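Section 4.2 – Deliverable D4.2 (structural model, holo form)

The reporting period included a commitment to supply a predicted holo structure for the target in complex with L-rhamnitol. Inputs used:
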Amino acid sequence: MSYLEAKQRYEQLGINTEEVLETMKKVNVSVHCWQGDDVQGFDTKEALSGGIQTTGNYLGKARTPEELMQDMDAAFSLIPGKKKLNLHSSYAVFEDEFVDRNALEPKHFKKWVEYAKERKMGIDFNPTLFSHPMVKDNLTLSSPDEEVRQFWIEHVKRCIQISEYFANETGEVCVMNIWIPDGYKDIPADRLGPRMRFKQSLDEILSIPYDKSKVVVTLESKVFGIGLESYTVGSAEFTLSYSAKNGITPLMDNGHYHPTEVVSDKMSALLCFNEKVALHVTRGVRWDSDHVVLFDDETKEIMKEIVAHDALDRVFIATDYFDASINRISAWVTGVRNVKKAVLYALLTPHASLKKLQDENRTTELMLMQEELKTMPFGEVWEEYLRREQVELNPTQSILDYEQKVLVNRK
Ligand code: RNT
Ligand code: ZN
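Output (structure tokens):
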């Protein structure tokens, strides 16, 4: 079947594929830089901490800013449409002298700004509150040690200033996401104390002036981490309540809930109360394992919830996973392409007709139609989208060539 035939099939459902392809041009996905080096960063040799883990030892991990940039370029060339660069503060590039995280300045990210500008991309940002000696007893912003807490408050304040610099330089909004790993492995004696201190720390951080039209501060929740199984300070209830009360944006990572909870169902609840919502798209396998995002049911369902409620411009979509067991370029390419694929799939769904069937309680027809849609010629439209974006239909050979040309030489 050709694209033109597929276009006609979709027309019968009342869907104009040309309009859909136009909409796809505006869909931006923020691509996490940390897939390229297993969340190592350039500011410390510390092992990855904070209850997150990369597993695998595939050849060719990026060891320098230059290598990471080169790898991201390789990945970007195989990902269609708009992209944004998502950085962690641990990816600062020190040219003259090293400074610790509580002394970071915009100049330490100049190289990344140049990189993003050359590629006409915006930048999103993340303070890094893990893999660092000032993480004391697995606590940062909720630490009872005032010196530790103040260190991290200063770090996040500086990250807000750096985020504003990114927005000024690139002309695009910078989404700055706060995630802390803080928690306890075993049953805490005091659950309230750490949460009150985290709240106090956030209040102090957000008391600095910043331009809210340029920097969108988000707060990410989590249910548990490795070694932090019994208690997480920044739980869902904490982060949602804090965001709602303080006018910041909640961020949902779909690896951060109990395995039978789904972010696709949470999306509409948050859209009722928040002008903006942020996402970390990942794939948990049995736990928050951060496998590469696939074109699977939940990814499709999440994007359906955004598109069906006309919320593409209200949701910040970012990827967040780290697989060290396969070619890291392919991890990026597969995951981000699948996010875009799921958005396109959602745009090719006749949501108004489906909603009408639901409202009229015609559930038999609703199920029949939902199932019929699964065999529509979606692949033809996806390929047409790739052709128009001048991106290869099958990225495999390019990825393998890059591995042979570049990655194998990194010993
Ligand atoms: C960890 C969170 C967090 C990190 C990144 C590196 O579980 O998902 O977003 O993955 O900040
Ligand atoms: Zn995340």
